[in-house]
Amino acid sequence: MNTREMIESLKRRVLAARGEIPADIVLKGGDVVNLFSGEAKKGDVALYEGVIVGAGPGYRGKEEVDVAGKWIAPGLIDGHLHIESSMLIPSAIAQVLLLRGTTAIVADPHEIANVMGLSGIRFMLEDSEKIPFDLFFMAPSCVPATHLETNGARLGVKELKELRKEPRILGLAEMMNFPGVLAGDEEVLEKIIAFRDRAVDGHGPSLRGHDLQAYIAAGIRSDHETTELSEAAEKLESGMMIMIREGSSAKNLETLLPLVNDKNAHRFCFVSDDLNAEDIKKRGHLDFMIKRAIEMGMDPIIAIRMCTLNPAEYFGLRGKGAIAPGYDADLVILDDLEDFSVSSVYKGGRKIVEEGALILYPHRGESGFHRKDNLLNIRSITPKNFRIPCSNGKARIIEIVPGEIVTRVRYETPRSRGGFVVSDKESDILKLCVVERHRGSGRIGLGLVKGFGLNQGAMASSIAHDSHNIIAVGVSDEEIFRAVEELRLMGGGLAVICGEETLAKVPLPIGGLMSAEPVDRLLKQLKALNQSAVRLGCHIDNPFMALSFLALPVIPELKLTDRGLVDINRFEIVPLFCNA
Amino acid sequence: MNTREMIESLKRRVLAARGEIPADIVLKGGDVVNLFSGEAKKGDVALYEGVIVGAGPGYRGKEEVDVAGKWIAPGLIDGHLHIESSMLIPSAIAQVLLLRGTTAIVADPHEIANVMGLSGIRFMLEDSEKIPFDLFFMAPSCVPATHLETNGARLGVKELKELRKEPRILGLAEMMNFPGVLAGDEEVLEKIIAFRDRAVDGHGPSLRGHDLQAYIAAGIRSDHETTELSEAAEKLESGMMIMIREGSSAKNLETLLPLVNDKNAHRFCFVSDDLNAEDIKKRGHLDFMIKRAIEMGMDPIIAIRMCTLNPAEYFGLRGKGAIAPGYDADLVILDDLEDFSVSSVYKGGRKIVEEGALILYPHRGESGFHRKDNLLNIRSITPKNFRIPCSNGKARIIEIVPGEIVTRVRYETPRSRGGFVVSDKESDILKLCVVERHRGSGRIGLGLVKGFGLNQGAMASSIAHDSHNIIAVGVSDEEIFRAVEELRLMGGGLAVICGEETLAKVPLPIGGLMSAEPVDRLLKQLKALNQSAVRLGCHIDNPFMALSFLALPVIPELKLTDRGLVDINRFEIVPLFCNA
């Protein structure tokens, strides 16, 4: 809008607020959740041209909706999540989140950035344009995550400054490189400086004492990696916005909630960080956190404030997070406050959700994503590329810890045949490979993993944190090869192979991370995929998630990247065999 | 600082926060007021290069200060005041406020703007540079205040956009023209739009219901003109930051404080609006409000939050208003929390106040103000200019209501001599004149006032809200003339005349509003001035303040400007005689 249009719009808004012209919609007789007074109070809410123009009695509307007996709350805001964890593109995750009463998220697109850099983030921005949902982003601070792996792009200070210009990019995303901050790494500090007038999110698991003070003194203002109550208290006192996380894996709500009281409630948000599509669909999003918090004894108004006004204020989102004149008409109508059961959702003054269903959402057609961008760049390979020559001594074997993303290191002499290490079904020690897929370097990291339990076949994934190379585990080199080839054909995704057959696959053509399908199709595909893994003998929960974290070289104890095995404690590449 | 310097500075800060290099100062063993946790807790505070780098045990400093038994609070922030009301220039008021624990204010310079426009505001900015005190400003929204008077400058949208570029100008100052907002006045709305991403302060006395909703819907986000509890509750619920005011005249603390509780405390600030120098010096500033609030039963931490973290967040002042790493080292050390008795004050990491005295403050020398700017532009006059020709019928007489700025209208036949109206000491009906002083127009408004009680002489003031023409009251035209001439000679100020003698005068060479003297000299001058007014027979409290408000054409019932008598109810100029 130009100034002329803004003036005209504001003139009409004032007229509507004064009741001189009818509002578009008046929600009548509901209990309005007021985050300023901290109370809920019966009243009408008048919406006009996408904005709340008045709350109180006496408004007429072109449409008047009786919401007596229901509650009206602001649309929910998630201040920290990674969309890619859902394997849904922005316009698809928005549909699922809207059903849960969420109308805005602040996403860190660092997965897609690791694959495609700026163009990946631009895709996220474009795909989330013109949908009835607010998608804000933070500029990823740590791409690549480490020097021990090969990723697809590098976001330096120059690229971050480029991102800063996008109006929907609100600040600097979680600064995972806290050792870099503490060591005074100049590039790291320069990134923080570039965003010094914006939100700068933290990521400081177990950071305490002087190191915590230094991390905050450098300009970091939030944390969502807190897992202990006393740690949260220390971070709170030190000025961090505490983002209490309840994701698909990391769940901190029950531990941290006891810290919140009326006097410090302005310093907490609820966030999800990483949520898979099934959890959003079945368990819920922030609605679930609010409900749990209320069950645990929290005042419902305070619980709602955690994911409305508080994140809005933290991120400087004017006009969001509350019900008052001039605020965006992003509203959730609730059948019940304590249950936070969503009856309908308004976004920008229009009803989008009714009785658990989307009633108004633009048809997306072809996503803005271009097929040519998403081809995996893998150098031509054969099964021979996965051979591991035998060596004397014991091998370092990655041992999965069920349900966790940490691994243990285990020393054993692997089985071999003809001078090459082979998978050993009896001991459940299988070959694990990471194939570089961004630069066609031909680099393949080779190792061994214990814990998958496959009796046959192979599994491969183009989701492999944080660089998202291809990671594959399998009983034979041929099947591993076939699994990787299946991914190459799909342009990225997940696959389960048995012999010459592809038992199941989930194409993730967008960066090898996200599906082009809507949520229900994706969930069906994932279900079939997991059932196929069971058929191969794999009984761990969520085996593809476990697989995807075996490449993450910042979590102890032993991981595998395209550059080889990484000893996390030494933070360096180590050979497979101890005496090599 | 350029980026290189910022990086180096941040590196050093991180080292100091980690305790690897000593801090500049460590305050040891005090009780630290923590506005994030809502509690006070014993701890050390380490200051380095003007910033708090750490709070907690184990810091060493080049200087270590034992503050055991004392409290450490953030420096206080006043979110709304008019410096000109103190008659002190910015660098002088800062000295007095620092003694009270205030380290930052957000001032609306609309008095000087009415006299000198942008150059007046630039003076305020320049005079407050390089002092150990943060002086932020809001861009005055209503200059001139009305079309019924002549002021010295006009701030249109263009000028306001110019001001927006100044880093210390935080937003749009109180939008006094609420009728303009409600009527959809385009220039008014365009001013709001120009500051839509900043703080936009309100001024909505008694505004309720749909008009209040409309005023807020237009983009106004705060109010400091609330005088009733139910009015404050309505404004709070409607999303306004409630600035509870306790000035020299308007005092709303006791009425409004009962509304504040732990759940809504984030929506209130303490402000002073208009404070004269004597009150600051004797009663105090925000320290007084905190103390009174605690006496009334408020939690001290919440009371402190009202004038630290809350205004900092409302105005987007990052790094201000709390004690945490990365925050500015603006601190108040208190002997007692409940009394809020200031022991010492640190600004930007340096001790400025110790035992009630400024110990570090730059010598200002000549203020940046240029003498040539401040000459009053009055067309040459003689006593004859103050003649009022007689007319039939009764005259509209302004009647002062003691202690208030409203006036009543009174209809009486004035005394006359030789065809001209003259002052009537017996009935206490005196001549009142407003001499236009900005444009040399020669315009003089003439009227009559009841309530000053002068037996002889005249008083004149170049402070006359809101346009600050010369206002004078007196027994004879000669003495009125002499009083105006005295002001002309001083380049503005206040004067008391008796016959041919000047009994007392206070030069206000800066725009005719502010003194070039430090506070103690000014207070001495003002005391002598008021004593002289008593000698003339004037027994009302603060007669020069009463005089200055007789020209304010937005407060009922009858006022006088250079354009003539203003009937406020009709909002138009009316003749002195009813049947004229």
Present the secondary structure layout:
Two copies of one chain form a homodimer.
Chain A: H1 3-17, E1 23-34, E2 39-48, E3 51-55, E4 61-66, E5 71-74, E6 76-81, H2 90-99, E7 102-107, H3 110-127, E8 134-139, H4 157-164, E9 169-175, H5 178-182, H6 186-194, E10 199-202, H7 209-217, E11 222-223, H8 229-237, E12 241-245, H9 253-256, E13 268-271, H10 277-282, H11 286-295, H12 300-305, H13 309-315, E14 331-336, E15 341-347, E16 350-354, E17 357-358, E18 388-389, E19 395-400, E20 407-412, E21 416-417, E22 420-421, E23 429-435, E24 444-450, E25 458-461, E26 470-474, H14 477-490, E27 493-498, E28 501-507, H15 519-535, H16 543-549, E29 558-561, E30 564-567, E31 572-574
Main features:
580 residues; 27% helix; homodimer; alpha/beta; elongated; eight-stranded mixed β-sheet
What does this structure look like?
- The structure is a homodimer of 580-residue chains.
- Chain A is α/β, with parallel strands linked by helices.
- Chain A is built from 16 helices and 31 strands.
- In chain A, the strands form 6 sheets. In chain A, strands 1, 2, 3, 4, 5, 14, 15, 16 and 17 form a 9-stranded mixed β-sheet that branches. An 8-stranded mixed β-sheet of chain A has the order 20-19-24-23-26-25-27-28, sandwiched between helices. A 5-stranded parallel β-sheet of chain A has the order 6-7-8-9-10, sandwiched between helices.
- The longest helix of chain A has 18 residues, at 110-127.
- Chain A is elongated and about 90 Å long.
- The relative contact order of chain A is 0.12.
- The mean pLDDT of chain A is 95.
- Chains A and B meet through helix 1, strand 3, helix 6, helix 7 and helix 8 of A and helix 1, strand 3, helix 6, helix 7 and helix 8 of B.
